[in-house]
Fold:
Amino acid sequence: MARGTARDLKAKLEGTGRAPAFDMGVGNGATAFFQPFVNLFTFGTLERHPKLRFVLAESGTGWIPFVVQEMDFRYGRLLERNPNPALQQKPSDVFKQQVWATYQSDLVGLHLVDFFGEGHMMWASDYPHHDSTWPFSQEIVDRETAHLTPEVRQAVLRDNAAALYGIS
Structure:
């Protein structure tokens, strides 16, 4: 059930008389990204490779601040028991140095831009996939970024990706 389609879920629920009305897209949404993302921190992968840049693509962004906040909490609890842990940095510090994230439509995430650190949130179109925002991308972008300053809006929609990928 790699893609988590409604058909796959229906097959899994055979005999229950219930089938989901919709699925959450590729990998069934951010849930497929959760454990691999957390593992990058808990196993120290990002900390051991400080020059590694990691992009969470097609996962949305609204869920990420909660997960990073929770990792910081857990790391703090670890420090209470072990003043010399295997990891030396708070997950949120590593996150702000090495992780970028993309979204297509994520009003919640766009209200959390500051959490990501300057330059680390990027809009993505995913065109021409059927689950992209096309042909309504411009309207969605305009509506969801209306609260941002023009500078932050341009950074999220263009400049952050250009800087990350070295294109002008």
Summary: DSSP finds nine helices and three strands in the chain. The two ends are 40 Å apart (CA to CA). Strands lie at 54-56, 99-103, 121-123. The first strand starts at residue 54 and ends at 56.
